[in-house]
């Protein structure tokens, strides 16, 4: 019995549903899902099994017009993920159609033509009528020669099995790249930091969208089977620190509780989570912050 294994890059605009699709395919919450655009920073890989095939998803940051160093590094990581993958899947939203962002992505994909296998997945199909879907599919395939087009709802699961099955048949023959029980190649410390950052983003989405980062400072395994996790939330200004802490520390308490509960569910055991907030004005310009997020600092130049 021959096995297959390969890398699949999911690309698209911010909020197109890449993280939701990764989680649906992998069957576990690996990539952070929020309604705030641009929450996936590192190229989080989820590993899905489909028959004898192992599909490794490279969940790239959303492609958008970069302005700051962090943005530029994120976009470079996304295109790097697509260039390195065996198959690239462009995910677009049915109800938004061919936006300027999608046009820019297609333009860039045309540079890859012949060198890269690309499929199209039209997501959120429940939001539009069938005839609109068909017209969108036709227009997209006229703009770029996609190998296959899939109509899906990542959130509801419609059409996802068909896409997964096709990917399982199309990744190259070869040994599996990861042990069967491993769902993500990110260290647990980083997954824990991402979970906390998601809770911060959801809670403070208006006030502090991208001005903060979370790092897991220490992880201690306890004799009773629980884990003590200490994390630092870095913000850029004193005023931001006050927002994160909230009145009498209420905001940080609520965030800590939500993150701890999700971590406990993910790890299947008790977690003692301790959060601290520190002002670090220049964290967006520090090379080590980028490498911790799986990004290349130089790509921001």
Largest sheet composition: 6 strands, mixed
Which residues sit in consecutive blocks of at least 5 with pLDDT less than 50?
32-42
Number of helices: 9
- Note the gap between the termini: 47 Å
Describe this structure in words.
37% of the residues lie in helices and 23% in strands. It is α/β, with parallel strands linked by helices. It has two domains: 4-170, 3-Layer(aba) Sandwich (Rossmann fold); 188-300, K homology (KH) domain (GMP Synthetase, Chain A, domain 3). The strands form two sheets. It has a six-stranded mixed β-sheet with strand order 2-3-1-4-5-6, with helices on both faces. β5, α4 and β6 form a beta-alpha-beta unit. The longest helix has 18 residues, at 250-267. The N and C termini lie far apart (47 Å). The relative contact order is 0.15.
Salient structural properties:
301 residues, Rossmann fold, GMP Synthetase, Chain A, domain 3, 2 domains, 6-stranded mixed beta sheet, 3-stranded mixed beta sheet, 23% strand, globular
How do you describe this structure in short?
The protein has two domains: 4-170, Rossmann fold (3-Layer(aba) Sandwich), CATH 3.40.50; 188-300, 2-Layer Sandwich (GMP Synthetase, Chain A, domain 3), CATH 3.30.300.
How would the blueprint of this fold be written?
Layout: E1 4-12, H1 18-26, E2 44-50, E3 53-59, H2 69-84, E4 87-93, H3 100-112, E5 117-123, H4 130-143, E6 149-151, H5 160-170, H6 188-203, E7 212-221, E8 227-235, H7 238-245, H8 250-267, E9 271-279, H9 287-292
Parallel strand pairs: 1-3, 1-4, 4-5, 5-6, 8-9
Antiparallel strand pairs: 2-3, 7-8
Helix pairs in contact: 6-8
